[in-house]
Amino acid sequence: MINNQKGFTYPLTLCLLILFQLFLSMCIEQLLTERKMAHETAMILREEYYFLSSQKKLKGCFKLEKLSLQKERFHMSLEAWIIKLKLLVDIFKK
Fold first, then answer.
1. pLDDT digits over 22-80, tens only?
2. Is the Cβ–Cβ distance between 56 and 91 less than 8 Å?
3. Three state DSSP letters for 28-73
4. What is the pLDDT of residue 94?
């Protein structure tokens, strides 16, 4: 240790380690953000699929009951809507 360059190596090594740690943490943060985005995108697509699937089933139910969504207007009380929804939930569970 006679020629130790008067303390030049330690600060240089420390700066390089800090830069490496900063770069690594930025990459990890980007990876985690991309994973969250992919998960949320999958959830949104799944919800959209379920919505479209239930819409198709509802149209099929209305066609089976010979009810036209465009021609008729439904004026039901709250209890009637709740009963109708319970029946539809039972149909979807099957």
1. 999 999 999 999 999 999 999 999 999 988 888 888 777 777 665 544 444 555 566 66
2. no
3. HHHHHHHHHHHHHHHHHHHHHHHHHHHHHHHHHHHHHCCCCCCCCC
4. 63
Q: What is the pTM of this model?
A: 0.50
Residue range of the domain that includes 32: 9-93
In the chain, the number of structural domains is 1
Alpha carbons 66 and 59: distance in angstroms, whole number: 10
* Whole-angstrom distance, CA of residue 60 vs CA of residue 56: 6
- The answer to the question of residue 2 being in a domain is no
Instruction: Tell me the two tokens of residue 50.
Output: 């379920």
**Has residue 4 been placed in a domain?**
no
